[in-house]
Amino acid sequence: MVMLVTRNLSVMLGHRRILDGIDLDFAPGALIGVVGPNGAGKSTLVRALTGLIAYSGSIALDGCEASTIARRERARATAYLPQGQTLHWPLTVDRLVQLGRLPHLGPLSRIVDVDRAAIERAMVRADVLTLRDRIATELSGGERARAMLARALAVEAPILIADEPLAALDPLHQFEVMELLAAEAAAGRTVIAVLHDLAMAARYCSRIVMIEHGRVVADDRPVAVLGSQRLAAVYGIRAEMDWRGDVPRLALLGRLQDPG
Fold first, then answer.
1. Cα 66 to chain centroid, rounded
2. Could you tell me the mean pLDDT of each successive run of 10 residues in the chain, 260 residues long?
């Protein structure tokens, strides 16, 4: 499996610094949640990790600077599920998931048995097998989100990066997606998920990276990151985490009172 490492990673968008000096090690076998308030730089971080935006500093895959790796090879190493699940073409779900195999295909190559097997596995894991003949643009938001997840899973990359994978999903499928991501990590992959649901992050992630104003302010086990004082400082909310028992519980008590 592949080790993903950033050193002094910074991103400028226009004249604004979005990320500033990010040093992170993403090891295989862990589900790593990236959390933080809106505008903190979470999506910018994962877009940089996938090579979609320019950056300074270093991003290394198994010790090799990512920018020197051929685009197709890098696409085979890192599967990416962007937020929004925007679709522009009326493809069937089956054809949509097939797109996940493009990094494995040469010019003019066709889907072969090994690709078809990967596509089937991905659709089963994302619970979209019964939707395979449906037009993806006609699906509900939750169904479309699962179909896009299946496309990412079909790459069968050692690194899976998901930006807000729970958006538009009903509670049952939120649990199923988090269980799936945890299972991918348990199978030895590096799984990075941008999450807004802190309770889900606490329950399923083995490690949480919290970002504020483009900097890492915490990087540790959920119990060490999601304390009441830090949630107040970073999110401006009153909250309590109950770590007793097998399932952590998060109580959102309200926003902090304005001074005075």
1. 18
2. 91 94 95 96 95 94 91 92 80 95 85 94 93 92 88 95 90 91 94 96 96 97 94 93 86 76
Q: What is the pLDDT of residue 110?
A: 87
* Helix, coil or strand: residue 27: coil
In a domain, 150, yes or no: no
Is residue 35 included in any domain, yes or no?
A: yes
Beta-carbon-side half-sphere exposure of residue 60 (alpha carbons within 13 Å): 14
Rounded Cα–Cα distance for residues 153 and 52 (Å): 19
In a domain, 127, yes or no: no
- Residue 146, classified by CB atoms within 10 Å of its CB into exposed (0-12), middle (13-18) or buried (19+), is buried
Quote the domain boundaries for residue 223: 4-84+157-255
Beta bridge partners of 33: 193, 208
Which alpha helices (DSSP H) does the chain contain, by range? 42-49, 71-77, 93-98, 113-125, 141-154, 171-186, 198-204, 222-225, 228-235
Could you give the C-alpha distances from 84 to 148, 168, 169, in angstroms and in order? 10, 9, 12
Which pair of tokens denotes residue 190? Answer: 């590096």
Residue 38 included in any domain: yes
CATH classification at residue 234: 3.40.50.300
Measure the N-to-C terminal CA separation of the chain; round to a whole number of Å. 53
Distances (CA, A) of 139 to 84, 124, 153: 14, 17, 19
Count CB neighbours of 106 within 10 A.
6
Tell me how many domains the chain contains. Answer: 1
